[in-house]
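I have been asked to look over a protein record a colleague put together. The record follows directly below this note.
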Amino acid sequence: MLNSTRNSASSDVMPPLLELRNLSTHYVSASGSRVVRAVDDVSLTLHAGDTVGIVGESGSGKSSLALTLLRVLPPAGRIVSGQMLLDGDDLVPKPENEMRRIRGKKIGMILQDPMASLNPLFTIGDQVGEPLREHEGASRSSAWKRAIGLLKSVRIPSPETRVTQYPHEMSGGMRQRIVGAIGISCEPRLLIADEPTTSLDLTIQLQYLNLLRDLQKEHNLGLIFITHNLGIVAKMCNFLAVMYAGKMVESGPVSQVFNNPAHPYTEALLSSIPRMTENRRRLTAIEGQPPDMSNLPPGCAFAARCPRAFDRCRTEEPPVFTPAPGQTARCWLVAPESRATGAVS
């Protein structure tokens, strides 16, 4: 289990903001013959003010985990087991009318593509103010006034003018900031950012990351940052969770995982980062492709691509091990018997 507490003393006093316990989400075909285990037995703990980075290749289950947290899965998706405790309250059994009161109010989300979040037919003022009207009963005029303040908080120039405009009149960086303003409009306890900087150039990306960090400090947000970019994780996150084939294969404090990765998949991801200090003609690539999620092989899902796999990896799925305090990994290489012998043949 990933525990995002900065120190053990505070964790004994402060209850976690979010706790996932053995959470699993499956996508099931209409006939029921095809099942994709998009999120498979995931456990995670996040405290207010901390940031967890979730990384992995496309299709590893990162976005499905975010949609599960919000309970906005597509029709084929269903939560099949586990718990999602927000301030100790389990979200899994809640009826839809209660979840509507939680989305936007207690949990905010920033999507990768702002144009998927913004309606081209409504002004910026109406869209930033909508959560305030929905969750706090604010009037349209009051919501607009507060929308101006929210645009100021995300450093949108001339907010009094911008609230009257439409999404197509904004640059990509401004649209992303506006989505951020919507996400924090009702001061949620938890903010999920799903690849929020992918469409931004490097200069705007840095500004946006600094803005998110400032907003987190101001509101004491718990932040889940989903990304492919490990450089962003190093800058933004306290803790790291690595997903592969729906499972959380490694987790722990960022510095610990970066310096001593326990899972070969994490090692491979870190090795693929370009480094200016190294004279390499070619970047390191991970051979092969992720497995078919509806037909996973026996054993470890990464075994077919792992240069260190041995017979047990191909036949028996590894449980969660603790190679170091605060760090977990699903890998037979860090099993106590493997570490005792010093090597696996």
